[in-house]
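Section 5: illustrative case.
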């Protein structure tokens, strides 16, 4: 039987509510913990019953803007898990689960909003200050990826001019080796994200249309793009593109995610993934 360890489920990259008229989008906070009956539950946030992005405690609601008329730059051709200067992560074996320790280095400061991808068009703004989150043996980042064995967790939320979310999560570990193992496990998780996402869609009764590719890679960084019809829960429902960036720096693993929502007529704005390698370099600052 599976272990009944404490599991912190992190709802991320989700638009938590859309009004019936489709005019307003609310970004909310939330996290859930499943704990053994015989153990005391860790402190967790649960600020809103509707799935949403986990942020440092603000819930801005704003009118959705008129779809942008800016033409999208053509995206370069990619193949699943294909670009970059390293082998496909599908060939990288999953390492043993890192051991959790009490001590860990201090996490880095979150990125300034102006340093986030597509900042000129998105006009990102922080959703309050960075927040220290309670960390459990496992922390889910999305439907595909899970961080294991972290000693601490810092989170910063952002919102764009398009009323879409971004989240930067920094996880620290007691040793650089533990951080390396956690990072390699995330790479393995995301190598299988297309299959995982399609299975989530099938279970929800949707067409399995998810497409996931690796768009950039560095020595200790990977960028991914997922295009799919999302399922409410960890993600917002509806047609969207999710961008995910992983970077390991010493004993810290940082994950940046942001979402582009698509309308019936197409995306409000399309981010150029040719900038993904530069984003990895910025995260590795």
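Designed sequence:
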């Amino acid at each position: 039987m599976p272990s009944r360890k404490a599991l912190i489920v992190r709802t991320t990259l989700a638009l938590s509510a859309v009004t019936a008229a489709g005019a307003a989008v609310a970004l909310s906070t939330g996290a859930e913990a499943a704990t053994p009956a015989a153990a005391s539950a860790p402190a967790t946030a649960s600020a809103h019953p509707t799935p949403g992005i986990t942020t440092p405690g603000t819930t801005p609601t704003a009118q959705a803007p008129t779809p942008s008329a800016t033409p999208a730059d053509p995206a370069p051709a990619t193949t699943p898990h294909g670009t970059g200067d390293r082998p496909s992560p599908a060939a990288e074996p999953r390492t043993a689960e890192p051991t959790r320790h009490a001590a860990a280095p201090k996490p880095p400061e979150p990125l300034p909003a102006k340093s986030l991808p597509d900042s000129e068009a998105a006009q990102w703004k922080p959703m309050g200050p960075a927040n220290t989150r309670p960390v459990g043996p496992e922390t889910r980042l999305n439907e595909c990826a899970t961080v294991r064995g972290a000693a601490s967790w810092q989170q910063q939320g952002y919102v764009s001019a398009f009323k879409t979310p971004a989240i930067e999560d920094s996880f620290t570990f007691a040793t650089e080796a533990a951080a390396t193992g956690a990072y390699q496990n995330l790479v393995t998780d995301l190598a299988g994200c297309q299959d995982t996402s399609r299975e989530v869609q099938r279970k929800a009764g949707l067409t399995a249309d998810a497409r996931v590719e690796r768009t950039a890679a560095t020595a200790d960084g990977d960028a991914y793009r997922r295009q799919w019809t999302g399922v409410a829960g960890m993600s917002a429902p509806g047609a969207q593109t999710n961008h995910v960036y992983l970077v390991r720096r010493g004993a810290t693993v940082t994950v940046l995610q942001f979402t582009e929502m698509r309308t019936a007529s197409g995306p409000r704005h399309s981010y150029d993934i040719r900038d993904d390698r530069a984003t990895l370099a910025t995260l590795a600052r």
